[in-house]
Amino acid sequence: MKVSGILRVKGNTLFTVTPDEPLARAVDIMAEKDIGSLVVMEHGELVGMLTFREVIQSIVKNGGTLGSTQVRSSMDDHPLTCTTETEIDEVRRMMLERHARYMPVMDKKMLMGVISFYDVAKFVVESQSFENKMLKAYIHDWPADESEAKGESGAP
């Protein structure tokens, strides 16, 4: 199972900001779109990731306000990334190690999408459910014992 499977189901809608935008504008976008992260792009390249975690840290640092803070001063400027070919198990491990809830998906320098820990968990649960159904169907259709198939009885 690869990241491409998640993107195929999820779609490729992306929301981005630039590092020089006011943090307040980024928060407005996140609230309006009901999303937990924004990809920070500059000159067509990924330069950071802004999540609700960074926003909260910035608010605390600024005494409870956003003030005139720019996205640049709050964003994670070394976000964890993966490719469409990265295995889901590897993504889970990476996200757990770094406590990352969102991960940009890259193809070299091109942004392909963003996946969340929720997306990964949902994909894994759905895959396991499908596999479980297939195994149950296989077991249900298991060929009968040869003696039962021939109509023989095991009774003396």
Could you walk me through the main structural features you see in this protein, from its secondary elements to its overall organization?
The protein is an alpha+beta fold and 156 residues long. It has seven helices and five strands; from the N terminus they run αβαββαααββαα. It has helices spanning 3-10, 23-33, 52-61, 71-74, 88-98, 117-140, 146-149, and strands at 16-17, 37-42, 45-51, 102-107, 110-116. α2 links the parallel β1 and β2 (37-42). 22% of the residues are buried.
Content of β-strand: 15-25%
Beta strands, count = 5
How do the SSEs run, as a string of H and E?
Answer: HEHEEHHHEEHH
Helicity, as a percent range:
40-55%
Determine the structural class based on helices, strands and strand pairing.
alpha+beta
